[in-house]
From TrEMBL:
InterPro entries registered for this protein in UniProt: GDSL (IPR001087), RhgT-like (IPR037459), SGNH_hydro_sf (IPR036514)
EC number of this enzyme: 3.1.1.86
Signal peptide: 1-19
Pfam family, one: Lipase_GDSL
Keywords: Hydrolase, Signal
Keyword Phosphoprotein tagged: no
Native organism taxonomy: Eukaryota, Fungi, Dikarya, Ascomycota, Pezizomycotina
Protein name stated in the entry: Rhamnogalacturonan acetylesterase
Top-level taxon: Eukaryota
UniProt xrefs under Gene3D superfamilies: SGNH hydrolase
Single GO MF annotation: hydrolase activity, acting on ester bonds
Recorded family membership: Belongs to the 'GDSL' lipolytic enzyme family.
Length: 253
């Protein structure tokens, strides 16, 4: 009886690796179903490589701003436990200009505390910068004792023009800045995907994009997920301890 009580007490004090959850917050490039028929998001291909439970809460068409406004970061914050992981990846839907109408997704320009005011769906909204939305979310999760990774957005088809070309959007740099400011881990997912795509070549990579240059097929989504874990193994933020393997395609950047 004493041994049983001691075991129960130890389990309560030390979080179990098997009880850890990885939460995913992102857009259609991460979400189930991706960008329509024949596509899927890379978040659906995370479970085979980790011992943790995976909660993919990515939603198509969302930006850091709209994900925040809809309370989706708060939903994760209400579920997350100390020791869990939250991976945040946005950027594809965050561009545009507020001067030509508000689509509900465009962030305020700038990289810090700048704000903009707009009326969206009849409601006056104070709009923050892209880094600030990510920083706020990351700090909320940290306050819950969770581990946070801010990840750069996946690249569009780097072989779309017939030759290899990768030009990171400004949101890649903004994501890195947000991670540094919030004091959380940063993964340059886009760079790792692009580098693996470079070695795979034109025909193979074009086949990953059945509908457009952004959304991947299931096979492409699997490659994108594995590229994320290659970056994790190389960067060693701690999440690598929850992986079933340390061997992934590609090189450390």
């Amino acid at each position: 009886m004493a041994i049983i009580k001691a075991t129960v007490l130890l389990a309560a004090l030390i979080p179990s690796v098997w009880g850890t959850t990885i939460f995913l917050a992102g857009d259609s490039t991460m979400a189930k179903g991706g960008g329509g028929s024949g596509t899927d998001g890379w978040g659906e291909y995370v479970p085979p490589y980790t011992t943790a439970t995976v909660s993919n809460q990515a939603i198509g068409g969302r930006s850091a701003r709209s994900y925040t406004r809809e309370g989706r970061f708060n939903t994760i914050a209400n579920q997350v436990q100390a020791g869990d992981w939250v991976i945040i990846e946005f950027g594809h839907n965050d561009g545009g200009s507020l001067s030509h109408g508000d689509n509900g997704r465009t962030d305020c320009g700038g990289t810090g505390d700048e704000t903009c005011t707009s009326i969206y769906n009849g409601v006056t909204e104070t709009i923050l910068t892209f880094p600030k939305y990510l920083e706020n979310a990351a700090k909320t999760f940290k306050s819950k004792g969770a581990n946070v990774i801010i990840s750069s957005q996946t690249p569009n088809n780097v072989w779309e023009g017939g030759s290899y070309a990768y030009a990171p959007s400004r949101f890649v740099g903004y994501a890195k800045l947000a991670a540094e400011t919030a004091g959380v881990h940063y993964i340059d997912h886009g760079a790792y995907v692009a580098d693996i795509y470079r070695t795979k070549g034109n025909s193979a990579v074009n086949a990953y994009y059945p509908n457009d240059h952004t959304h991947t097929s299931p096979a492409g989504a699997s490659v994108v997920a594995q590229a994320f874990f290659k970056a994790v193994v190389c960067g060693r933020p701690g999440l690598e301890k929850l992986l079933k393997t340390q061997s992934f395609e590609g090189r450390c950047l």
